[in-house]
Amino acid sequence: MPASQPAPVRDSWQPHLALGITGHRASNPSYSAHATAIGAALEALFARIDAMTAALPGTRGAVRLHSLLVDGTDQIAAERALARGWDVAVPLPFGAALNCAINAHPQGLADVDALLAGRVAADPAVEAKAAAIRAITARASVFALADRDAEVEALWRASLAAPDDRAAARAFEALASDNVALAGRVMIERVDLVIAVWDGKVANLPGGTGHTVTAALAMGAPVLLIDPARPDTWRILGRPEELAQPWDGGAPDWQRLEAIIRAAVVVDGWSPAQLAQEQWRPRSSRVFTLYRRIERVFGDGGSAFGSLRVDYEAPGAIASGSEADLVAAAAAMPGGDPQVTRQLAEDVLPMFAWADGIANRLADAYRSGMTVNFALAALAVMVGVLFLPTGMIDYKWVFAGIELLLLAGILVMTAAGSRLGWHRRWFAMRRVSEYLRHSPSLLLLGVTRPTGRWPRSDRAEWPELFARHALRDVGLPQVAVTRDYLRSGLAGVVLPHVIAQAAYHTLKAEHLETVHHRIDKVAEACFALAVASVATYLALKGLGIAGVVPKHLASELSPVFTFFGVAFPTLGANLSGIRYFGDFERFAAISRVAAEKLWAISERIELLLSGNESALTYAATADLIHALDEAVVEEIASWQAVFGAKHLALPA
Questions:
Q1: Which one of 181, 304, 310, 366 is most buried, counting C-beta atoms within 10 A?
Q2: Rounded to whole angstroms, how far apart are CA atoms 331 and 339?
Q3: What percent of the chain has pLDDT over 70?
Q4: Domain covering 18-265 assigned CATH 3.40.50 in the classification
């Protein structure tokens, strides 16, 4: 095994811009009256975006467009994106065949049957629409929500068979709209900017353009809103409340668009090349172990003086090692995307193992460095007065010299920690590893945290951007999401991960609570011994004055009692300092809360898997994955809030 390894990031990896498109259908009067102008405006906009991304530092100038491929705006945008060499990702609200059939708008069941079977429709207009959809989907990455296709098809057929039955039509429209809105949510979660061609009239139809626009703004995604009547003019909205603001149709704000694009893919002062500064090593440091030794001595984790060596799993071995079951479960998902499984095994999991190993070593250096400072401070005080009980007053200068060396050690340790950035680097690599730790559940089920809802930090934000783009690079799996696919993903990938993490946090909480209470008890005992030492001296002094004991006894033992009177409080205070610095109690509480959330999520998953088959939908599954993601991010935020301000410093 090599002594160190650089970041397992492909040389070709670079952030890319992700766009979403939504707009009126071809049948909408606002669209049909200006279709040619809308197409030209989108072409001009895309050309300008191409130029902006190509000019940004540290990107490959690539753009990925997400489109639901509804006829009209969605399709012409996808066609122009493909012509420019952009990637096109298509979250379909139905299975590919059913989606094609519905969006071709056949009027009779004969054409429905033909389209669902992959045959040519008899109606030329219907076939032309179907052919346009097939041509784009053949060149795009398709993530199809096919889990409710049987229900949707049955309601659709019923509405076509009885065109005058409004109840049948409403039942189909309601379910279809819900699925379209769900596909829109998948799109919004993955993009930096939504481009919308909308007249602003209807906003409450689920799955409609207005609904998608409001949903995007609510999730923190900016929207570039194009007026279909004047497609060469547009404005950018960042909050839902801006929809109600009047607009005079002013000139497009290209500067703001460029700022949004830049913020999406560039962090000033950082590039992926900076990861080369970190080197993964196969095992824990032999030098920085004191913090973990404190945990071992005061906890219940084995022999207090046993080996603390930790061997880190090699990035290249994780897919066939600790995560072999996960990779096998991913590969076994019915109809799964082998490309996503390959990227998990070759890119994402190795990056997690690499970041996790580095974060562990940096944590040892930072936390042990501060613990050493407390230990040296206590030793300095005790050595400084040790000449008293030893009777070596003539050699006080020796003890003073040792005290000076110990104090210098504190200064050297503090300076080294600051110069090498242990705290800053640990924070960054820990965030990267924790974001990637639960990423297989997100990637395999097409769920992600919306761009606008990633945590913000007053420190370096590159870990969030790197993790977001590392996951985005994998993209949506090219799958038809069936109930079998959902069941396999939940049972084989998500549930084992959630249970393992819940168990880990449960044990961690118990361990840290034990460490906290035992350090407390020892610190209290030190102060009690200090009181006993001073009290004993005063008692001897009083008894000597009273003639009960020899008068000189108190004077002879005075140096010893003075030493203990100083040493015990110093030791107790520094143990309390280590307890305060380690914040074992608060970290135990954070882990306890995380465990409770994760156990609750595991119970919900088990209920969903054991319940009625009709309840196992993509919507329900995505909600559970989002709950998992939220629990992870909240735990990271709580951890940062505790340790964020605790830089390596003098033990004052």
A1: 366
A2: 10
A3: 95
A4: yes
